[in-house]
């Protein structure tokens, strides 16, 4: 006995449910050549708070859509931003991978012109940073030693792109990635390099990054992949 199970998060009237059951039954019997009396249909109305997409519930997404779009501003970071950036870093990365306030401050003191932040209604909600190097790949020592920055190096690196969870899905990360790419082009770099986890390879490919293979980096005990955007 076939069972057609349909889950939905929309509010459906009794008449719509009856029509849906009838139409699903008719379609199944026509395609499969069975009797209508043998077809079961089960409708499951799921609360929007219990249905998640991309890490967020539909109810949360509804609230976001109902709010006016914030005023967005991209600017270079300042030393006064470091505490806020450390808070965002800690929320976006596991503890073993997140850069500390001390580490971010050390980086900023050496290559602060390669720190960009994005503000939404005056509040920093996303940022990107990375040193310049002659190495075509990122290795772990670069994360640990800000002085490895090479001002006139060939490659702009991306150490991290962080967006607070409540502000994801709005293209903020893409805005900052494109900003750093633009800066690298203006500074006549050879390209941009990064390491990422396997599930993000497709995302970075949208910007033109090409997969170079599994990285030698074991930063934070994770498995990373090298990617390069060639100019």
UniProtKB/TrEMBL annotation:
The yes or no answer to whether the keyword tRNA processing is present is no
Annotated GO molecular function terms are: isomerase activity; N-acetyltransferase activity
Q: Which InterPro entries match?
A: 4-OT-like_dom (IPR004370), Acyl_CoA_acyltransferase (IPR016181), GNAT_dom (IPR000182), SNAT-like (IPR051635), Tautomerase/MIF_sf (IPR014347)
Keywords (A to Z) from UniProt: Acyltransferase, Isomerase, Transferase
List, alphabetically, the PROSITE patterns matched.
Answer: GNAT
Does the entry feature the keyword Transferase, yes or no? yes
Question: Which residues belong to any copy of the N-acetyltransferase domain?
Answer: 72-230
Name the source organism.
Rothia terrae
Supply the name of the protein.
GNAT family N-acetyltransferase
